[in-house]
Design brief:
The protein has about 400 residues and is α+β, with helices and mostly antiparallel strands. Helix content is about 25%, strand content about 30%. It contains twelve helices and 24 strands. The chain has helices at about 10-15, 20-25, 30-40, 45-60, 70-80, 85-90, 100-105, 110-115, 130-135, 330, 345-355, 380-390; strands at about 145, 150, 155-160, 165-170, 175-180, 185-190, 200, 205-210, 220, 225-230, 240-250, 260, 265-270, 275-280, 285-290, 295-300, 300-305, 310-315, 320-325, 340-345, 360-365, 370-375, 395-400, 400-405. The strands form three sheets. It has a 19-stranded mixed beta sheet that branches. A three-stranded mixed beta sheet has the order 21-24-23. Strands 20-22 form a two-stranded antiparallel sheet. Strand 23 and strand 24 (about 400-405) form a beta hairpin. The longest helix is centred in the first third of the chain and has 13 residues, at about 30-40. The chain is globular, with a radius of gyration of 24 Å.
């Protein structure tokens, strides 16, 4: 095993480039774990460098433990796909090794090659390597988590964050149960109409939640969202109401169509997977279909959409616009624990960040029209996201409880 003295003068970027350190993150064993545990005990001054380097490397998600030169070039090509041809010609990317393993390139093209970490595309010059060497975070704001409030039919509320697993309430003949994985389930034994009550689950800014309805349909709620639903489904239809954003996997029942109401808009399905984004500050209500078929109705107008399509409604008086060939991964990235950007401007990005980190965002001055592409896990502190965005020419400061974006 390498001696401690080698690492005593290391900076954060040195740790990122060190093979033994990378093996500790990606291929740990008892000997490596013991080495680094002892090093941290003997060298507490290096703990901050190690923590930040570890977080950066831990955010990377590689599907293969070996990347050929061809694979590396493919990743680079896809990264710069959105840059116009002229600007792309001005970029010089040199890969010298003919036998490249992921740990040899992880630090030098950390954000470019990462499947699970954000990479950004600037319209002028990229300086990705600087991200790994910034020593002080702008500000640490913890990410959101499983947080929600359940409002029962009688008006009583239950904080689902702190509620213990097990039965939480009895609503008629339906038992409300918090499962071991933190989800909420409605277990119904009798569909008598006399016992139906309506419950509401509300997530705060910085919250998300998953529940299983009485018919077996599953719902994921994003931050600052809500769903109102019956404790059991009776009659000819199953109907729920939402605000904010929700992803549905609806249990098939041809005799009882499933309706989702968003204001005056109705989304009708039998059994399918779809996402609805209806945040008021987004300005457009988007229904995106992943599997099956749905009918989107607003007033007298309605459209059927197919998998890969998205129905968009800006205002109640507008026609329903159908967008084809939608990036499904980007639409449901939030449900899979990711931010994902596809040529996204800073205003759209900061709205998502504001909701997830529960922080007010203020724009000052002329903000560059920088576009971003890539992914980042939603379980990292906000400082990690801010450092990356600053590489796109965006200046971010934290002041008086607000995130201020300037040029």
């Amino acid at each position: 095993m390498v001696k401690f003295t080698k690492y005593q003068d290391y900076s954060e970027s040195d740790f990122l480039n060190d093979e033994l350190f990378q093996n500790w993150i990606f291929k740990p064993n008892e000997e490596i774990n013991a080495f680094w545990a002892q090093f941290i005990l003997d060298n507490p001054s290096k703990s901050d460098y190690i923590s930040r380097a570890k977080l950066l490397l831990s955010s990377i998600e590689f599907k293969e433990d070996f990347l050929s030169e061809e694979k590396v070039r493919d990743y680079l090509k896809s990264t710069f796909a959105s840059i116009d041809n002229t600007e792309r010609q001005n970029k010089k990317i040199i890969i010298r090794s003919l036998n490249i393993r992921w740990w040899a390139v992880a630090a030098s093209v950390l954000l470019i090659l990462s499947v699970g970490y954000l990479f950004l595309v600037k319209q002028n010059k990229q300086q990705i390597a600087k991200i790994a060497t910034q020593e002080k975070p702008i500000h640490d704001i913890a990410p959101g988590g499983n947080r929600a409030t359940l409002t029962l039919g009688n008006g009583n509320t239950i904080n689902l964050d702190s509620a213990q697993n097990g039965s939480l309430a009895i609503q008629g003949n339906t038992q409300v149960v918090k499962l071991n994985d933190g989800q909420l389930a409605y277990q119904n034994e009798n569909n008598s109409s006399a016992t139906v009550q309506y419950n509401t689950i509300t997530t705060p800014r910085g919250g998300q939640y998953q529940l299983t309805l009485a018919d077996g349909s599953q719902v994921w709620l994003n931050a600052a969202s809500s769903i109102t639903f019956p404790t059991s489904f009776v009659g000819d239809t199953r109907e729920v109401k939402i605000t904010g954003e929700a992803y549905f996997e609806v249990a098939h029942n041809a005799n009882m169509p499933f309706h989702v109401k968003v204001g005056n808009i109705t989304v009708q399905v039998l059994g399918t997977h779809f996402n609805i984004n209806a945040y008021e500050d987004e300005g457009v209500i988007k229904t995106t279909l992943l599997e099956g078929s749905v009918k989107v109705s607003e007033g007298k107008e309605n459209v059927m959409i197919e998998p890969g399509e998205q129905a968009q409604i800006k205002n109640p008086s507008d026609k329903i616009i159908v967008k084809k060939d939608v990036d499904m991964e980007e639409v449901v990235a939030w449900k899979n624990g990711l931010f994902q950007f596809d040529n996204t401007n800073i205003q759209d990005i900061m709205r998502k960040i504001s909701r997830w980190y529960d922080v007010e965002v203020v724009f000052e001055g002329d903000i560059p029209n920088t576009r971003f592409n890539g992914k980042i896990y939603r379980n990292v502190n906000a400082s990690m996201v801010f450092k990356i965005l600053e590489e796109g020419g965006i200046h971010i400061i934290f002041k008086e409880g607000k995130v201020i974006v300037t040029n």
